[in-house]
Design brief:
This protein is mainly alpha-helical and 168 residues long. The protein has helices spanning 2-13, 21-45, 52-56, 78-83, 93-102, 104-109, 116-134, 142-148, 151-167, and strands at residues 58-64, 67-73. A two-stranded antiparallel sheet has the order 1-2. A hairpin with a 2-residue loop joins strand 1 and strand 2. The chain is elongated and about 85 Å long. The relative contact order is 0.16.
Length: 168
């Protein structure tokens, strides 16, 4: 029995998880699962009108000293979907303009306009003004995603990976 404990200690001494791409894959798979849950939540909330936000959700794993850093990148307006927007200030018209261009039901509203570009700009301004006056309600998709694909899941997967790596 002592030989096995000594061998385990020797194996563990040489164990360097950063040099093994298995840990990177474990973290990347978790990030992919989290991103997928966020996309599902956007669809559940019916806040995925143009699919721009959905398509921008991207988990990024980067090495850092002693480990890895997982971040999820997405369009910068995600926080207004997640937390809502307080009344008081108009949002940037550019994103609303793009949303109108991509949303079929909004295009129906301006299909008979002589100048569709001007009509789209005008509609974007009206929508931005209303958001500025009334705000928007929160439609969380990130926090519910983190609740459903919790960090505990990642910890369990890393624990299993460590144990499997040491048994090899």
């Amino acid at each position: 029995m002592d030989k096995r404990i000594e061998q385990l200690g020797e194996d563990f001494k040489n164990f360097n998880p950063i040099e093994d791409d298995g840990l990177l894959r474990v973290i990347q798979n978790y990030g992919n699962q989290l991103a997928q849950q966020m996309r599902i939540n956007l669809r559940k909330n019916k806040t995925n009108a143009s699919s721009t936000l959905d398509g921008s959700i991207s988990p990024i794993v980067k090495p850092k000293q002693g480990g890895f850093n997982l971040s999820v990148e997405m369009e910068d307006y995600w926080q207004y979907v997640e937390n809502g927007r307080a009344a008081g200030k108009m949002p940037p018209i550019k994103n609303i303009y793009q949303w109108i261009q991509e949303k079929r039901s909004m295009q129906e509203k301006i299909k008979n306009a002589k100048d569709r570009i001007a009509a789209t700009k005008s509609l974007a301004y009206v929508i931005a003004r209303k958001i500025g006056k009334k705000g928007t309600r929160p439609q969380p998709f990130v926090q519910p995603g983190l609740n459903e694909v919790s960090v505990d899941i990642l910890v369990q997967r890393i624990e299993k990976w460590v144990i499997d790596s040491l048994e090899k």
